[in-house]
Amino acid sequence: MVKKTPGAEISSELKELLSIRHLTKEYKKGAYLFREGDSVKGIYLLRSGKVQIGKVTPEGRELTLRICGPGQLVGEVTVFSEHPLYMLDAKALEDVSCIKIAIQDLEDALLENARLAAAFMKWMGIDQQKTQTKFRDLMLHGKKGALYSTLIRLCNSHGLEKGDAILIDLVLTNQDLANFCGMTREVVNRMLSDLKKEGKLSVVDGKLLVRDLRHLKEEINCENCPISFCRID
Known about the structure:
By secondary structure, the chain is of the alpha+beta class. The protein has 2 domains: 98 residues; 89 residues. The strands form 3 sheets. A 4-stranded antiparallel sheet has the order 1-8-3-6. A 4-stranded antiparallel sheet has the order 2-7-4-5. β9 and β10 form a beta hairpin. α1 crosses α2, α2 runs antiparallel to α3 and α4 packs across α5. The two termini are 19 Å apart. The N terminus is likely disordered.
């Protein structure tokens, strides 16, 4: 049984980022912190609001990889490289307040503080693993794998135990789910309807209630990756 685990708490080592020179930034809902292909200017630590990390496919379809919240770092940053570019988009889903640390100031701090450098590299590794496992599921397991793995990730990130079921404590439209899966809303509608008919899933006050998480895992031969990787935050 999955328990809700906090993903929004920054580690004590990474809190040292707050001692680096930084700017306080505010973004309105719908604004972009950065776009895919932009030159890397810095990294962002969220104080309030939610940010969607994703990209637009060659077909023009929106693909959501993660939703980050307060206390989390945002920025696909490659440090100590020449002319790095952001590989993904970061879009404010709500009004966002954050601090922005310039890439040069970040690199200087990492050179001077070994403990901070180790913590930052660990965060980068987990961040990359989240993205890689997401793309793996999309490529290897087809449409069912895309939806089922997304539901599993949502349970790991926002799940609340309700008896033998897990309530995903996040209001999502079917279009939101489609964006996570890289599919059309119509396909997601049909697959969710099938799960409801089978008694594996229901909706409570606009939120998804997963009644049989084991079924979802078995259907896609879930490898039981560490929960730190198998998340959408």
